[in-house]
Amino acid sequence: MSSLDAASHRSSSGSSQNVEKVRKMLFRRMLVGVNDGRYFLGLFHCVDKQGNILLQDAVEYRIAPSQRRRDSSPAEQRGLGLILIPAACRSSCHVDCSVEESLSLLSLE
After folding, report:
1. Domain count, the chain
2. Per-residue confidence band for 58, with pLDDT thresholds at 50, 70 and 90
3. 59 - beta bridge partners?
4. Where is pLDDT greater, at 4 or 15?
5. Where are the transmembrane segments (predicted)?
6. Is there a contact between 69 and 79 (Cβ–Cβ < 8 Å)?
7. Structural domain of 48
8. pTM for this entry
9. Quick one: which of 57, 58, 46, 41 has its CA closest to 87?
10. Percent above pLDDT 70 for the chain
């Protein structure tokens, strides 16, 4: 096997491990925050090469500007269904799983 073949084998092996990690997150509850302060909670459906996330049965949560000043204000919510969240808009992302699984998922390269 040439060094080029070995390098491509290592990179495909690494990417297949990452694909397996993402597969383990499928259909788990995911909370995604976006730059404008809204949050979306839904079932993780997929992610594309650009990092866009697709959530199924999503609910949007937002706090109205007038309510942000109060500490105990409830967030407004509305059901959205299937949504795509662009990678450029995403500020945070949390998957509902155990601590051990979270630590193993953090090792994505």
Report:
1. 1
2. very high
3. 41, 79
4. 15
5. none
6. no
7. 3-105
8. 0.73
9. 46
10. 74
